[in-house]
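Example: TPR repeat.
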Amino acid sequence: MRKIFAGALVVFLLAQALPVLAKNSPSLTPAEMRQLKKEAMAGDASAMLSLGDAYHYGRAVRFTSDPAWAAYWYGRAASQGNVEAQTRLGDIYSDPEDPLYNEVTALLWYKSAAEKGYLPAQYSLAMLYENAKTINPDYSLAYAWCVKAAQQGDEQAYETLDGLYIYGASVHSYDEVLDHLTIKAEAGDAEAQWRLGKSYMRGDARQDISKAMRWLEASADQGSAKGLYYFGAELLMGNNLPQDVTRGLQMEKRAADMGYVPAQFYWAHNYPAEGETPDEGIEKMIFGWWLAAAEKDYSEAQESLSYYYANGQYVTQDKAEAWKWHLLSFRSPWRQLSWQKDNFPGTPVPSLSDFEKAEGHRRAEAWQAAHPGPYWPRPQ
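Written out as structure tokens, the predicted fold is:
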């Protein structure tokens, strides 16, 4: 079976790769730098953004990172309304280790891009409101901007809302959240138990890995799908607990059988276990999971279906259907971000005829017409 590691946990990790992708892009030669500067001086905002990246990430040959020059070129592009540059400026000014650190300025630039609907700025603004050190945190605004980002398909925001903002805009401090969760968890509330475990793991009010594992296990022992998912993942990774792949997979499978899509992704990625022979019946079951998740608008599952239909794996080959799901996988605004398109373009459908492409377009439009609601919320 083709291994596809998807789901909220994975996309979260991909999201963390954004600055790394920019940083590790090929270095620019002196000639390329001169050409960029020429275009930037002529008013090209995209060239200004590229120059800012070169100085920010030290991508210019014979140059190291230079925050001042990065901020200068980002500022030139940002003043033209370039939302990526505005967000990069927010990143610079919100970094306590940057010599230009200034949360007030970061807030202004993040807010400018966020109000234009730019998804990364919305989540970054939420995190600044939540974690501000030199300005007053505002948990209500953090929650509001996190919701906006989640509504556009930002998996980080989705995860944050799911695990932290249990009381929504009424949250005023991490300590308050911890107190509420502890009371419920000690009373046997399985949902509060996994949420409390995640809170201790993240260190929202205070970090305590031992308590985190204890509460995640308590939730899993009660049969909570998310408790099983999170505790199973810990057993599989072996970072905070002794690794136990067999037990971890059993927990992920239980959560998957309950219909919890991230567990289905995670279990499928780790199947078959080392030394285990693949079972065609199980792989067909996994295909059924992908189909159900795709109908719930999970872009990762939609891309997986595209692969299966294109290659006739576990289903009759249908390239038009493959193209349909490939198109739909980019419906999420999150997948429309340029770095997502460039670095995770999806699987192309080979040897696609004009008729198959047109038919795929028609089917995708019909699917969208039958699913007119917004990308958020995704049913579980």
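Residues 107 and 186 are 39 Å apart (CA to CA).
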